[in-house]
Amino acid sequence: MSTVTPIVKNILVVAGDVSGDIHAAGLIRALKAADPDVCITAIGGKNMQPLSDHFWYDLASKGASGFVEPLKKMPLWIKLINQIRDYMETQNPVAVIVVDFYGFNHQVLGMAAHRHIPTYYYVTPQVWASRQYRAKQLAKLTKKMFVIYPFEPDFHKKFGGNAVFLGNPLLDFMPKPLEKTYNITDTKNHAWKLGMLPGSRQGEIKRLAPVFYQAFKQILKEFPKTEASMFLLPDADENAVAALIGEPPHPQFHFVKDTNYEKRKEMDFLLACSGTATLENALLGVPMAVAYKMFWPTALIAGLVIKVRFVSLVNLLADKLLVKEFLQHHATPRALAEETMAMFQNPQLLANMRKQLLELRAQLGEPGVAARAAKEILDDIQKK
Question: How far apart are CA 147 and CA 163, in angstroms?
């Protein structure tokens, strides 16, 4: 009896930063669950590596943001681009999937389009916020874009793009929020839980970790039982971050490496670096203030090209200043401490913000986003 040899479906998946690595890993897992003949070649990070059949490079740990910093990565990028070109010409991939990280990935898309390889953007860059001309380029280079906010399909449609919203992929692995009450009578002596998220990139951590720590020191003067947790990535060097603080950490200050959000969702208030973390906090229903400090040339250029009113994803979704934003020279220990203490002095403010954050969660769809995207991609491949 003869058997039919299955056709191996070579798919290239490319991500370039920490959050992209997480989302790409979820999609790879879903692709393999739906079709065992899928063969994944990947560039990304530590989450993608064990799931891939061929893993080339941990680009996520080397990722750069902004306008100036990526220039330092050009020799590495050129090397990887050449490797991707060889792969496309020799391995006959049935699809190329890129995740966020526009600066590198639009080159990958261009090479694939030139070779008539179907391309998909999973977690499309937020071109609606700045450099909107890129939307027209994305429309030309992609077969389909899987966007993560409900307003994005209409935006991309104006530029000819095929964008679909299947839900926000964060919902695939975020736990349910805690049930919390704010019936606190002695706010001054309450054991408040303050969380700090200084970012995932070295530059962000260098600029924000000392600011957050000094804010905590000022908060202790008014709320002496406050416990502070600074959340770091699993592979972060605690000693290096402690050195940035510049003094022995206070006994009520701790570093936390929380891989499942269970510790973070216990926090009463968070000081967070602008980025994906702010949306994660919203999904957990944890009130926050947002801070960001850029390398000054990057900040100068950003001020010229950003076309939205807010920096925080939470405020953009709410279309109002739901959480306070402290940017550049406004991101001081004093300012962040004052905002935190105002919340601790009036717990009803925390309750109101939490309610509004959880209302945002309801707008972002249901879990199973990666599985739905994988099905659409594999259906397209099957038709081809």
Answer: 6
